[in-house]
Design brief:
Mean pLDDT: 88
Protein name: ITB1 protein
CATH class of the largest domain: Few Secondary Structures
Strand order of the largest sheet: 9-12-11-10
Number of strands: 12
Number of domains: 2
Keywords: Disulfide bond, EGF-like domain, Glycoprotein, Membrane, Repeat, Signal, Transmembrane, Transmembrane helix
Helix content: 10-25%
GO cellular component, one term: cell surface
Largest sheet: 4 strands, mixed
Radius of gyration: 20 Å
Organism: Brachypteracias leptosomus
Distance between the termini: 48 Å
GO molecular function: C-X3-C chemokine binding; collagen binding involved in cell-matrix adhesion; fibronectin binding; integrin binding; laminin binding; protein kinase binding
Strand content: 25-35%
Low-confidence stretches: none
Length: 151
């Protein structure tokens, strides 16, 4: 695979590569979670990819949990201030809530639907005025978060 040299029909891998075809990277950087742990402490890094040992968790660093409580609640205050300019983080929004890309959509049926390659959470939360608002939260393989929120 270009990560070694062939000697007598056997690959001799360059440093940081292993496998019969030198196709397995020993670099753990792609497995590093935002908390500094390999695979968020919930898996093993194999060939530069996390193999999550807890089936609830997925994603490039085992940081996404579709069935866990908290993804929606954790981000609701930031989405509220970014999308509607209100809520508990209104005053600190520009400091605390710029960690995701945000797209506004006209209605709930315009939100991204399951089946896309990135793990996706559909959220329904109450705002400070006791009204429901809807959004999706997803993280791509580069660890970039994207939010779609209904206007």
């Amino acid at each position: 695979t270009g990560n070694g040299i062939c000697k007598c029909r056997v690959c001799e891998c360059f440093p940081n590569f292993t496998g019969s075809a030198c196709d397995c990277s020993l670099d753990t950087t792609p497995c590093m979670a935002s908390n500094g742990q390999i695979c968020n402490g919930r898996g093993t890094c194999e060939c530069g990819t996390c193999n999550c040992t807890d089936p609830k968790f997925q994603g490039p660093a085992c940081e996404t949990c579709q069935t866990c409580l908290g993804v929606c609640a954790e981000h609701k205050d930031c989405i509220q201030c970014r999308a509607f300019d209100k809520g508990e983080k209104k005053e600190t929004c520009s400091q605390e809530c710029m960690h995701f890309n945000m797209t506004r959509v006209e209605s709930r049926d315009k939100l991204p639907q399951p089946g896309q390659p990135d793990p996706l959470s559909h959220c329904k939360e109450k705002d400070v005025d006791d009204c429901w608002f809807y959004f999706t939260y997803s993280v791509n393989s580069n660890g970039e978060a994207t939010v779609h929120v209904v206007e």
